[in-house]
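stage 2 :: seqdesign
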């Protein structure tokens, strides 16, 4: 029985309201109302996006906003579409530890919505419901903002890099990052990198930015975190952090999705938490991706050796890429998180570790209903000792399935990205109209500088 159910039942007893309101045969609340039962629960689970001006498209703050959506809400919850969370335990994949912040509603939550609909979507006693402030990052050291508002217009996706100066005059280790999107209408994702040698100084215009692809175009670098609207802050496991040297700046790779008919401004901010004490281990995110050494494996529809080619019209096409770590990770590396990344044609993705000594591969994540619009870093909820381990000489394998046919509900968006009107063969590329098969894998490393061993 959900907490709100208990509360309501308790309240009824206290008021001595007479006839029992719980139907014993089904144990369902037969007089569930919006303001007393369903609204607070939904705002808690859905309110970070379904609020006035939020990315969810409709608000759940008021009864009259929510009622037209009653059946859709139930359907979206029952089917698992909402809240957005793509990771599932499947026959092929049962990660050794599950992930933090799994927002999926309980069966009781779903029953409550059903009971509310059965009760003729009753309003109840009106009161002000506020969306939750969100988890938010605790103990923030500093908040930094893009140097100038950036204009987002046109009808093509924009990838822009921004140099962001961070006041700190000693080496620190970043343990948490929260991205505060300034304009949810156009901010599609943000990748936050470290620029220890301030190479971005030579790349920026007077407003502190430069065009770039999916990468920061500075080296050495570490990915500190990635973010999409609605995603929680990124935190590294206890007693770990990403080295951020005195005087280093950030390079933020913003992916903007223009509205097509308006000019929008964005000046996104970033909250950072760090420690000045050297942690026991370092963290970094590793891109398991073709430009970074991952190799395309032979596939069913290749015509010219192993190639990344998704033929037009195929409803199911699989590409597999493998990153062999050879001997450049000469120690055990626990994996603390993973983010699957494909574009609009991607529908299903699995990421595995292959260690020579292990009889079976370790599945890091399976997203059987992958959606481009709802990507996030999935972080394991456990001690480092419980996390999956990449052993010396091990490999990371990424298996991606694409639907490049009319039955893909996002085909219009995919084709619009390249200006095409009929189905096309698709190859690897960073533009939204191309495809990728990339896993961003969070690694826990010994406390040495990346450049000294990579
Ligand atoms: C991380 C942000 C986010 C959260 C949290 C979220 N939604 Fe959504 N929701 C969206 C976005 C964005 C859309 C816009 C349509 C789309 O892209 O599917 C949407 C669309 C919807 C729709 C209409 C489309 C559909 O799939 O039926 C319903 C209904 C819905 N959400 C219900 C919910 C409910 C109920 C919850 C909580 C249990 C929830 N959402 C939580 C972002 C969110």
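stage 2 :: out
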């Amino acid at each position: 029985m959900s907490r709100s159910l208990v509360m309501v039942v308790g309240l009824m007893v206290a008021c001595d309201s007479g006839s029992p309101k719980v139907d014993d045969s089904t144990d369902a609340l037969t007089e569930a109302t919006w303001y007393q039962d369903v609204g607070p629960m939904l705002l808690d689970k859905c309110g970070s996006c379904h609020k006035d001006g939020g990315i969810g498209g409709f608000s759940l703050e008021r009864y009259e906003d929510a009622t037209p959506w009653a059946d859709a809400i139930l359907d979206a919850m029952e089917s698992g579409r909402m809240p957005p969370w793509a990771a599932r335990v499947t026959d092929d994949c049962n990660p050794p530890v599950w992930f933090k912040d799994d927002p999926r509603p309980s069966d009781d939550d779903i029953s409550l919505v059903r009971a509310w609909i059965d009760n003729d979507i009753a309003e109840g006693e009106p009161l002000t419901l506020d969306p939750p402030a969100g988890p938010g990052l605790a103990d923030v050291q500093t908040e930094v903002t893009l140097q100038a508002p950036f204009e987002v217009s046109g009808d093509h996706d924009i990838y822009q890099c921004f140099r962001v100066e961070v006041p700190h005059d000693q080496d620190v280790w970043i343990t948490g990052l929260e991205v505060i999107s300034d304009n949810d209408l156009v901010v599609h994702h943000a990748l936050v990198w470290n620029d220890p040698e301030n190479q971005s100084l030579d790349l920026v215009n007077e407003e502190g930015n430069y065009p770039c692809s999916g990468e920061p175009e500075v080296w050495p670098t570490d990915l500190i975190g990635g973010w999409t609207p609605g995603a929680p802050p990124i935190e590294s496991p206890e007693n770990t952090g990403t080295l951020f040297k005195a005087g280093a700046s950030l390079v933020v790779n913003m992916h903007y999705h223009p509205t097509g008919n308006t000019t929008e401004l964005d000046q996104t901010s970033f909250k950072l938490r760090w420690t000045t004490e050297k942690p026991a281990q370092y963290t970094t995110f590793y891109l398991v991706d073709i430009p970074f050494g991952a190799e395309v494996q032979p596939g069913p529809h290749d015509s010219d050796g192993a190639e990344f080619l998704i033929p037009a019209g195929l409803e199911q096409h699989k590409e597999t890429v493998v990153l062999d770590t050879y001997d450049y990770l000469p120690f055990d590396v626990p994996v603390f998180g993973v983010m699957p990344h494909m574009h609009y044609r991607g529908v299903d993705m699995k990421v595995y570790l292959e260690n020579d000594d292990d009889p079976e591969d370790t599945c890091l994540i399976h997203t059987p209903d992958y959606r481009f619009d709802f990507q996030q870093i999935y972080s394991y909820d456990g001690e480092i000792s419980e996390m999956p381990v990449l052993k010396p000489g091990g490999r990371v394998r990424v298996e991606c399935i694409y639907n490049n046919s009319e039955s893909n509900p996002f085909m219009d968006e995919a084709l619009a990205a390249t200006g095409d009107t009929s189905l096309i063969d698709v190859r690897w590329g960073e533009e939204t109209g191309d495809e990728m098969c990339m896993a961003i894998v969070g690694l826990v490393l010994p406390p040495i500088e990346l450049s000294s061993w990579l």
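stage 3 :: structure notes
- The first helix runs from residue 3 to 15.
- The chain is about 15% helix and 30% strand.
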